[in-house]
Design a protein that fits this description.
By secondary structure, the chain is mostly helical. It has a single domain, classed as Up-down Bundle (Glycerol uptake facilitator protein). It has twelve helices and no strands. Helix 5 packs antiparallel against helix 6 and helix 5 crosses helix 8. It starts with 5 loop residues before the first helix and ends with a helix. The mean pLDDT is about 95.
């Protein structure tokens, strides 16, 4: 079966976004918990494989390894099935642009998914990263010490080095690429194709140091739980705010609105429905 063309991808994305608002709140929350945990797993393995690589020897290659490993998170979200706020920021507003759902549905879904993502990411950060000893403490020896130092470098950069404006812009760039990964995965009709579509955009945004609000829901609490000095919850909340707003702009402006304008703006919903029903009968 051939891959979907961009027009069909746009129609599927709008329908998927509308369907995401039709579930009960508890199902959305559980699905979002899983999505946050999956992104946290990707972040944890990314820290693990990129730890201990001296930039004097490796240059910027550790960021490439970090990005390649982090792709696990979105692969789990898309293939296993769960809700991720950054992907929903593209899919659900697109459903509203097509008139399938209301703006209130968009707000309600994104709010609930962000809460679930936060719970899932913090759960993995505390219990499976820090309490297990995978992320060590300052002065720890071996792998635990290396992962602590790597996490500290990432968290301090995001909270004390980047300005709020930089976090916002990095959030825009991040979710432009994340949503393109989700968008392109809709073109594929098999698992291998979806994984390939996801890999390169996700690897790219992580390698460039862009900010993903759900990933930061893992990195920053994990740093606090691991005792990284110089980071407070106020710093964390500000990072989440500016990264989240940037992620929303990147999704809605550069993906949802762009592809709605290109493929769906002048296309009647009735035509879309008729063609989909014909394809299902065929």
């Amino acid at each position: 079966m051939s891959a979907r063309e961009p027009l069909e991808m746009a129609e599927v994305a709008a329908e998927t976004g509308a369907q995401k608002t039709g579930r009960t709140w508890d199902r959305v929350l559980v699905s979002a918990f899983l999505g946050g945990a999956y992104i946290a797993f990707g972040a944890l393995v990314a820290i693990t494989v990129s730890s201990g690589l001296d930039p004097k020897t490796w240059g910027t290659l550790p960021t490439l390894f970090l990005g390649a490993a982090f792709t696990l998170g979105l692969v789990l979200v898309v293939i296993a099935g769960s809700d991720l706020a950054t992907g929903n920021m593209m899919l659900v507003p697109l459903g509203a642009m097509r008139g399938k759902i209301r703006v209130a549905d968009v707000v309600g879904n994104l709010t609930l998914v962000l809460i679930g993502n936060l719970i899932g990411a913090v759960f993995v950060a505390y219990f499976l990263a820090v309490q297990t000893g995978v992320i060590g403490h300052a002065g720890a020896s071996g792998m635990a010490g290396l992962t602590h130092d790597r996490l500290a470098a990432i968290a301090l950069a995001k909270t004390t080095v980047e300005s709020h404006w930089q976090v916002f812009l990095r959030g825009v760039g991040c979710n432009w690429l994340v949503c393109l990964a989700v968008w392109m995965s809709l073109a594929a009709r098999n698992v291998s194709g979806k994984i390939l579509a996801i890999f390169f955009p996700i690897m790219a945004f992580v390698a460039m140091g862009f900010d993903h609000v759900v990933a930061n829901m893992f990195f920053l609490p994990a740093a606090i739980f691991a005792g990284v000095p110089g980071i407070g919850w106020g710093d964390v909340l500000l990072n989440w705010l500016f990264a989240g707003v940037g992620n929303f702009v990147g999704a809605v402006v550069f993906v949802s609105t762009s592809y709605w304008y290109l493929f769906l703006r002048d296309r009647p919903v009735e035509v879309e429905t008729t063609e989909r029903e014909a394809a299902e009968r065929a």
